[in-house]
Structure prediction request, 221 residues.
Amino acid sequence: MGFGLPHGDLFAAIFVDVPGGTDFAAFRFGLPPLAAGDPKAERDTWRISGFGLPDPPVVVDFFAVNDKWSENSATTHTGVNSRTAPIGCGLGPFGHTSFGAYISKYGEDDVALAFRGGRSARMPPTRCSQTRHRINGRHPSLSSVDFDESGQINAYFRWKNEHDTTSRFAMKLWIAHPVVANPPPAMPDTSTTDVTLRRLQSFKVQPGKATRGSWFVRAQS
Prediction:
C-alpha cells in the first residue's frame, strides 16, 4: 500500500489483506496527520495534500475492527477517500487474518470479496471513484464509537467504459448483486453517490470551460 498509492503510474490496483499499519502509506501518499477541530478544515487539509503525485490506483482493502495492526487503517481511508481516489473495502470482526473462509462469514464482507476491481484492473483504463454512498457501511473513520461491526465500502458498485473520444465520454455504472455463499439479508437496488472520473484517455476537458453531461444509472442483478 505504501509503494502503490503514490505510484499510480506503475500500478493499476492494490489489493490489501490485513494491512500491518498504514501510517507509512499515508505519509507516502502525501497525507498529513489529521488535526482535531473543524471537520471541514480537516477534509480540506486532506484534499489539498499530495499534489503532483500520479493518479492513484484502485485500492481494495480488508481490515478488522478488532485487529490492533489495523487500528490506523481508518485514518488512511479518510485521506484516500477525501482525495476522491477509488477505494473499496470490507471490515469485520475477523481478526488478523486474510483467509476468505473467515471473512466471508459476514454477509457484506462476502460481497466485498466478490468485488474484483482491485484484482482485474488494467493499465491505463478510465475508472471512477465513488464517495458518500447511501448504501455504504459506517466506517470507523466517521466515529470512534458508532460504526458498523462489519460491512462494506463501495463494494456494490461496478463500472464499464463505453465511449472515450475527444468529444464524448460514456460510462456504465450499476449496483451489482453478486452471488455469494453468505449473502446479506438484502442487497440494495438504488443509491446516491458522488462520482469522480479518473484516467480519462481521449476525452478532453477544456480549461476554464464547463463540461456538461448526464448520468443514466441502472441496477443489475
Notes: Residues 113 and 164 are 29 Å apart (CA to CA). The chain has one domain: 13-219. The chain has a mean pLDDT of 77.
